[in-house]
Input
Amino acid sequence: MRTIVLILVSGFWLLASGAFAQVPIGLRNPGVVGALAPRAAGGGGGGGGGLTSTIFNETFEGTGYSITSPTWTESLGGGTVDEDYTATVLDGSQSWRILTADSASSYGYNSFTAGSERWVYFMFRPVSTPNSSNGEIIEIWNNGQTRIADLQLTSTGTIQVRHGTATATTTGAMSDGTTYHVYLRYVVGTGANGVASVGFSTDGSRPTSGSNFASTSAGTATTNAEYVAPGWIGFSGVMDLIYDKLQVGDSTSAP
Output
């Protein structure tokens, strides 16, 4: 019988024979020597997307919100929010589910370090949408908590990005029951030259062209971004939405 001994040294598995093979520490299952840890269940989308660096990273793991300072504020308008949702998890072991009342806004918001350029990434699963009106699924606010940019889910499932009053809309559409990775970019302007873009995918990649991408360079918002507000804001219909892995980054964070 031949015995093979594996020794972990500085991120490498060292064989008794002297040969070695690298296995990244972040992918190892600590319960099985040398095994790769399985990817978290993603409800159809997987957890592979995200920014390269973050200044705000809400995972929705643990009890309540994972970010406790600054604290989250919820505005429910008759709806309900479950910060520890486990029935259909998009990433990790918990997600954030929002169920709105008819014709009422329900959302949460929190602040981050203000800046002239901010990237927002989140996982998103529309469970049940009325397909009768447009509504914001996430907003970016300035210091005065006034909307400066947002994403709207339209009645046909396309995504519209808005920078002040300027808009651009994807030709690709989202479907209920599918998990998406969504990337939103905001760059402040001086009156009619602000930049905003949106891209979404089911595999974590960030589109920069094609049917699931839209952008505008005629944005009218002129203030820095400081708040992020996920949820269904201001339109009719009962919405059932799931979010996860909400991240905010700066100009260096694009994947």
Residues 1-45 have pLDDT under 50 and may be disordered. Residues 102 and 238 are 5 Å apart (CA to CA). The radius of gyration is 20 Å.
